[in-house]
Amino acid sequence: MTITYDPKHPKYLDEADVRDELTRAYDICQDCRQCVSLCPSFPTLFSFVDRHDDRDAGRLTPEQQDRVGDACYQCNLCSINCPFTPEVHERALDFPRLMLRHSAMRLANDQVSLRKRITTAVLGHADLVGKLATSIPAVSHRLVNAKPESIVRTVVEKTSGVSSVRLLPPYAKERFSTWFKKRVRPEMVQKQGSVAVFPTCIVEYQQPSIGHDLVKVYERNNIECSLVEGARCCGAPYLHSGDVDAFTKVAAQQVKVLADAVRRGDDIVVPQPTCGYIIKKDYVVYVGGPDADLVAAHTFDASEYLINLHKAEGTELDTDFTGDIADSISYHVPCHIKAQNIGSCSQDLMKMTGAQITEIDQCSGIDGMWGFKAGNEELSIPIAQKLAAKITDAGNDLVVGDCHLANTAIVEQAGQIPQHPLQVVARAYGIAEEPTA
Q1: Which of 175, 253, 267, 344 is deepest in the core (most CB within 10 A)?
Q2: Where is the 4Fe-4S ferredoxin-type domain (predicted)?
């Protein structure tokens, strides 16, 4: 048994070694049970060990071990709450990274079905799909916006593995980068910062309005904005599906272009939490080296960067909010914001406008693309329903969330259309929403 989370370790993909390590980890977890309410993995695990009087995790079959792993969607909340993590305890348990190792082992040992491999290939080529979808918007609209469980969506599920019953985020008619390059740049009176925007495939292809408002809010605060040249999908779909080689290749390419931007004097700003987490945490593990460390140190969530600037000596945010301000906001805290351990930056930013914030602390059950995959609905949808119930109970004027994929689950289950925190700030400044292309 080897306790390692290093994908370059010679035992990383060894099945016998991985399964022995799963037994060790599952024994620790069943003794503790602190994370039982966080995600389906732990109730699944405890239901298996409780079948035996001695609660010995070594009695789990490989199929049962795999079912625990299949229920993990990499929210990383357990690592935040775990008392046995490598940094604080000799047991050195990092459950999410062990689940990544488990997924990679299964893929490398041909234990993943062809259908799941196809789904990984489709979701992993997010940029190719995005480029096609935005170049033929009428076709993509018909495919993505077709009614759940319709014939069209059933065909999409059969061919791609994307669930036919979930509401999907639609594609835009104009890409964010297209808008960015043709916009009129304002004159900077007194520059307070310089950032390169890593738009993420979500903002680039599906919700460019988040990027529009991010740039306008930043430029209003005399922060010079550029684009990360050569930016593409961060690679999360590959990583979370166990394709270490594909993820590492993507990550290495992104580390290079991001490091080049940092050396030019820019910080990296990311408007989506999963992508920010990947760049800050996973590139360091899977690529490593000085460039990955440099990029991680200079990468910030969109709200985090603004709060840091406001708190720093010699710089501050414009707090002249004369536009539309919501009286009350239900703010959904994405798991991958909490996992970055950056505090309540989005809430702090919105509070500056005068809005009253109710924190909605409930996972959406999406986390990357897991919740959109066919076969995960039985576990994912009830989680999203809990989130919707909390939002409905709060009864506030506006729903806000940093993660567009989680926001899509909110639309699906609560019938309310959330905004990104930077959009709330833009409206509070009186910045008009960009017309749809």
Answers
A1: 175
A2: 20-51
C-alpha span between 254 and 270 (Å, rounded): 13
Domain that holds residue 354: 328-429
The CA–CA distances, whole Å, from 222 to 152, 184, 219, 317 equal: 47, 15, 5, 9
Residues 39 and 70 in one domain: yes
Global pTM value: 0.94
The answer to whether the beta carbons of residues 159 and 206 sit under 8 Å apart is no
Instruction: Kindly state whether residues 66 and 144 are assigned to the same domain.
Output: no
pLDDT band for position 435 (cuts 50, 70, 90):
confident
Q: Do 332 and 236 share a structural domain? A: no
The Cα 359–Cα 337 span in angstroms is 13
Least confident of 132-146, 178-192, 309-323: 132-146
Residue 51 resides in a domain = yes
Interior/surface letters 203-212, b for 16+ CB within 10 angstroms, e for the rest? bbbbbbbbbb
Q: Are residues 408 and 394 both part of a single domain?
A: yes
Closest Cα to residue 76, out of 322, 296, 274? 274
- Res 129: pLDDT: 87
Among the candidates 108, 127, 152, a domain finishes at 108
- My answer on whether 379 and 279 are in the same domain is no
Q: What is the mean pLDDT of the chain?
A: 94
Q: What is the number of domains present in the chain?
A: 4
Backbone φ/ψ region at 242: left (φ over 0), alpha (ψ -120 to 50), beta: left
* CA of residue 292 relative to chain centroid, distance: 19
* Residues 341, 277 share a domain: no
Determine contact, residues 85/8, Cβ cutoff 8 Å.
no
Q: Is residue 169 part of a domain?
A: no
Q: HEC states along 297-338?
A: HCEEEHHHHHHHHHHCCCCCCCCCCCCCCCCEEEEECCHHHH
- Starting at the edge strand found earlier in the chain, the sheet holding 398-401 runs 356-360, 328-332, 398-401
Tracing tokens 């405890």 back to the chain, one arrives at 46
Q: How far is CA 25 from each of CA 7, 8, 67, 303, rounded to the nearest angstrom? A: 18, 21, 15, 35
Residue found under tokens 């690592």: 79
The dihedral region occupied by 234, where left means phi > 0, alpha psi between -120 and 50, and beta the remainder, is alpha
